[in-house]
Write a structure and sequence with these properties.
This protein is mostly beta strands. It has 2 domains: about 40 residues, no CATH class; about 70 residues, OB fold (Dihydrolipoamide Acetyltransferase, E2P). Helix content is about 0%, strand content about 60%. The protein contains no helices and 9 strands. Strand 3 and strand 4 form a beta hairpin. The relative contact order is 0.18.
């Protein structure tokens, strides 16, 4: 089930005990939401380090083992795990450079990208 709520003007947003801005919440993060009078009064990010995100790869920095995904119009950069894998739509292993400008599903473990799967162009 999916429900849409507006945020209350004074809504509190936290991640790991620190207050953050709504823009800092990664889509797909596991969160606890409190609703008061039909509006979100508090959002607490419970986990954004062990999730799967979907987006388009807009930049790859192979020297730093890092890539940038565009998710819902915002850019998020992630480090790659030492043993990360890249697969195509047919589950065939691929090189990292093949995912540039592709829509992907990226599985994070402890904040590092462990698996990248191409979803399509």
């Amino acid at each position: 089930m999916e429900l849409d709520y507006d945020f209350a003007q004074n809504a509190s947003i936290f991640r790991y005990g620190d207050q953050i801005n709504l823009e800092d919440v990664v889509p797909g993060a596991k969160a606890r939401v409190e609703i008061e009078e039909g509006k979100v009064s508090r959002l607490e990010v419970l986990d954004d380090l062990n999730i799967t995100v979907e987006g388009r790869v807009v930049h790859i920095n192979e020297e730093k083992d890092r890539l940038t995904l565009e998710i819902n119009g915002r850019k998020y950069s992630y480090d790659l795990a030492a043993d990360f894998t890249v697969t195509g739509t047919d589950e065939e292993k691929m090189n990292l450079s093949a995912v540039l400008n592709c829509r992907v599903s990226a599985t994070l473990e402890n904040g590092l990208i462990k698996k990248i799967k191409i979803k399509g162009q």
